[in-house]
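Supplementary Methods. Inverse-folding protocol.

Structures were first reduced to a discrete structure-token string of length 221. This string, shown here, constituted the complete conditioning input.
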């Protein structure tokens, strides 16, 4: 499974990159707004300088012509830019056009298996089912992942399943079990993947025992 970080924070991206396990970045207008980004394209360029993997940058337009024009402009920023396009009628039309031009697309705001199927048929590189938001309306986000995995496997579709709207480590674990290709998550979730109380206790005991060993050696001198 590939690990993407879902943020517009350069500091978080750098720290995740320094861990050595970061495969890409996803951003959106909300994340950029929270970071106070004023120069969107310049900010995406900075992210691409940090990360070798795919960096998803989202279009703002909702009409076919606007989506296509924005996408063609975004991919000029860097070779690793992937264009995020919303899963709407004009978005699907744009995905078909752009994918035929060799432009890679992350089709976002997916909430059903049939949406995922049509996005794959249009040529999306990634499909982003929002599992956390599905859970929020008392539906099973992991069932959505499972259904998409089965459909894509049935027809040998190349679109990668990018589990999005991840809220906690169990989302990552379940998505990995079901065969999602990518998980994109906030930095705090990446940190939580490392945490376990037994690890903390074990390390504390090892260090305490080491200190005691050194004291015993000194006393024996």
């Amino acid at each position: 499974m590939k690990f993407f970080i879902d943020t517009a924070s350069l500091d978080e991206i750098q720290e995740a990159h320094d861990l050595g396990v970061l495969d890409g970045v996803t951003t959106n207008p909300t994340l950029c707004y929270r970071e106070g980004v004023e120069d969107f394209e310049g900010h995406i360029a900075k992210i691409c300088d940090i990360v070798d993997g795919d960096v998803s940058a989202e279009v703002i337009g909702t009409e076919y012509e606007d989506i296509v024009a924005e996408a063609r402009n975004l991919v000029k920023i860097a070779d690793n830019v992937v264009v995020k396009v919303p899963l709407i009628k004009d978005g699907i039309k744009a995905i078909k056009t752009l994918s035929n031009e060799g432009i890679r697309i992350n089709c976002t705001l997916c909430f059903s298996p049939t949406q995922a199927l049509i996005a794959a048929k249009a040529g999306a590189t990634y499909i982003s089912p929002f599992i956390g938001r599905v859970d929020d309306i008392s539906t099973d986000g992991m069932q959505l992942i499972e259904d998409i995995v089965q459909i894509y496997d049935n027809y040998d579709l190349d679109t990668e399943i990018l589990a999005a709207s991840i809220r906690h480590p169990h989302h990552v674990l379940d998505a990995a079990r079901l065969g999602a290709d990518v998980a994109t998550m906030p930095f705090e979730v990446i940190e939580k993947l490392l945490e376990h109380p037994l690890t903390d206790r074990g390390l504390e005991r090892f260090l305490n025992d080491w200190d005691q060993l050194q004291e015993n050696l000194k006393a024996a001198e």
